Structures are given as structure tokens and as C-alpha cells.
Amino acid sequence: MNLPLIEEQQYKTQDYITNSLPKAEYTDCTFTNCNFENSDLSNIIFSECDFIDCNFSNANVAHTTLDNVTFKDCKILGVLFQNCNTFLLSFKFINCTLNLSSFYQLKINHTTFTNCIMHQVDFTETEAKHVAFNDCDLHQSIFDRTNIEHSDFISGYNFNINPNLNQIKHASFSKENISGLLESFNIKIKD
């Protein structure tokens, strides 16, 4: 499919609930305070784009390309990232809420999550090597057969990761959050 190329555009306070974002290849574009809730973003290409203070809740990202995309201060509830185009998939998240989203079976190596709320996020069978979870709340997020080797959980919290079910070699944790690795063993930790 040949998509029209749109470069270096600024989109502000646009509502794409009723009028969908046109199918195109967006390069070096910035979307600020835009509403994509329940929108169909399938088969769109975003390359080197920034999304600032946008709402992506329940957006359809089937076959969507996210190449070096930054999400900042965004609400991203229930988004199934595993449906994205996996070729060139790379993104980072800053101050975002990603509750109920899913990265099931994706390769998200070297992704950075900074100061994100990530309740009940699905990382089942995800390859998440060298991922940074900086100051992230991972309450009830699912790590099952997940490869988190070399990942950084030093300032992450509220996670429950069973070392028997996940690959955690060389991952980093702090003394304060090490209980998140032991919870599955049903043991008590005293100060």
C-alpha cells in the first residue's frame, strides 16, 4: 500500500474520535493534546513522531508502524501493541498511563518507560532485554515466560516477577523492591 507522506507537521487539540486520522506515513510530526480514543490507527506509519498529552485509550493499532516514536504525558489504556507492525518497532514512554495495555510476545528490547503507571500490563512471552522501568508502577502487570535479561527495575515498584518463570539474568533490582521477586515464593521478609 502506497501511503501519502506527511512530514514535519504539528497537530494540536485534534479530535480523531469522529473524523479518523487520514491513512498516511507521518514523519517527524508532533501531535499535542489530540484524542485518538477508540480510533482506527491501523496501517498508519509513524516515524520519528512525538505524541504529547494525547489519549490513545482502546485505539486500534493493527499493522501500525511505530518507528522511533515518543509518547509523553499520554493516556494509553487497553492498547494491544502486539498487533502493531513489528518491523522497525521502537518507542519510549514518559509520564504515561498504560494500564491494561499489552506487549504480548513482542520484542521491545531497549525500550524506556519513565515515570509510567503500568497496572495490569501484559508482558507475557515478551522479549524485553535491556528495558528500563524508571520510577514505574507495575501493579499486577504480568511477567510470564518474559525475557527481562539486563533490564532495569531499580526504581520500579509494585511488580511481582517469578524468577522461576522468567529469564532475569543480569537484571537490576534495588534492596527496596527485591520483595517483588520473592512474592511468588510465599515467604515473609522482615526489616
TrEMBL record:
<dbReference type="Pfam" id="PF13599">
    <property type="entry name" value="Pentapeptide_4"/>
</dbReference>
<protein>
    <submittedName>
        <fullName>MCBG-like protein</fullName>
    </submittedName>
</protein>
<dbReference type="InterPro" id="IPR001646">
    <property type="entry name" value="5peptide_repeat"/>
</dbReference>
<dbReference type="InterPro" id="IPR052949">
    <property type="entry name" value="PA_immunity-related"/>
</dbReference>
